[in-house]
TrEMBL record:
The keyword Hydrolase applies. Pfam families: DLH. This is Dienelactone hydrolase family protein. Residues 68-311 form the Dienelactone hydrolase domain. GO terms for molecular function: hydrolase activity. InterPro entries: AB_hydrolase_fold, Dienelactn_hydro, FrsA_esterase. The keyword Ion transport does not apply. SUPFAM superfamilies: alpha/beta-Hydrolases. Residues 1-27 form the signal peptide.
Length: 315
């Protein structure tokens, strides 16, 4: 893979506004930096479908920067993007945060392509920065519980005048990608009765193990694209391969793209490949997990993602 990726890095934001700190690497050396992304912090209410407990959350709302994908009424397709176990920010100080390079990259790519983006924050309002080192039993914001955060986000975007509710997509990374799988599963009643359903979903390196089991029902509400590295030992791809095989012949498309010589977090700009011994991995128990960027794989994955979203949303 020799296609050069779009290395979009580093965005700092205050309470409500983003300020771009760098530009695309492929831009001309003397070109002007892109205009800053303007974001709004919005309030969401996540309601547990089993106990009815309400949790006040917030999200970061960034509007599309081009009108290429609007419908005749000026409404945009919209993506709800769920962060992974490391949270949405690389730093939080005095009530202000800094988006990680991965989330900044995605915000720029999607808004430049004509999509509104909502990044729900599942952790900070719950008093957490990260849950990567927690055991599954310690995670209050589990993938299954976070599907209610997705439902809160779907409800919020459906109230926005510039959102085309017939063209919604879900996207997530790792724990957030696992959340996407849970929030798509029509085998769960709260998902099946939801009035607003996405038309597409993209999952970067999810944990597919729960849905790979033959006895576990999985019926996705929309076509699903899974993007991950062949060498991922944090969320090994074999489970997603098994899930895809199990779903062959189903009504809803599941596409799996695997990238060689590629590990977890491959789309995180500038992250060196390294081993984390603080994570209870499932690929190599006791040996830690491998994480780090592969710019070529990221470029291919972004291309697949944009093509997939365009095919499913911009009809």
């Amino acid at each position: 893979m020799r296609i050069r990726g779009k290395s979009l890095v580093s965005l700092c934001f205050g309470a409500l506004f983003f300020a771009a700190a760098s530009t695309l690497v492929h831009a001309a050396p003397n070109s002007a930096p892109p205009p800053p992304l303007v974001a709004q912090r919005v309030s969401l209410t996540s309601v547990d479908g089993k106990g009815g407990r309400a949790t006040s959350l917030y999200g970061v709302w960034i509007k599309a920067r081009t009108s290429l994908a609007t419908d005749k009424n000026g409404r945009f397709p919209t993506v709800i993007a769920m962060h992974g176990c490391g949270g949405l920010y690389s730093m939080v100080r005095d009530g202000k945060g800094e988006f990680t390079p991965r989330h900044l990259a995605m915000a720029r790519v999607l808004t430049d392509a004509g999509y509104n983006v909502l990044f729900p924050d599942s952790f900070t309002p719950r008093g957490r920065r990260s849950t990567c080192q927690d055991s599954l039993s310690q995670r209050e914001a589990s993938a299954q519980n976070r599907r209610y955060d997705v439902q809160a986000a779907l409800h919020w975007v459906s109230q926005q005048k510039d959102v085309d509710t017939t063209r919604l997509a879900l996207l997530g990374w790792s724990h957030g990608a696992s959340t996407i799988l849970a929030s798509l599963n029509l085998a769960d009643t709260d998902v099946a009765v939801r009035k607003i359903q996405p038309r597409a979903a993209v999952a970067f390196y999810p944990d597919c193990r729960p849905y790979a089991k033959p006895s576990e029902p999985f019926k996705p509400a929309s076509p699903l694209l899974i993007l991950m590295g062949e060498n991922d030992d944090w969320t090994p791809p074999q489970a997603c391969e098994a899930m895809q095989k199990k779903m062959q012949g189903a009504d809803t498309e599941i596409a799996l793209r695997l990238y060689p010589d590629t590990y977890h977090d491959f789309d995180a700009p500038g992250m060196p490949v390294h081993v984390r011994m603080d994570i209870a991995g499932v690929g190599k128990p006791g040996e830690g997990v491998t994480s780090g960027a592969n710019p070529d794989a990221r470029a291919l994955a972004y291309r697949s993602m944009l093509n997939f979203l365009d095919a499913k949303l911009n009809y």
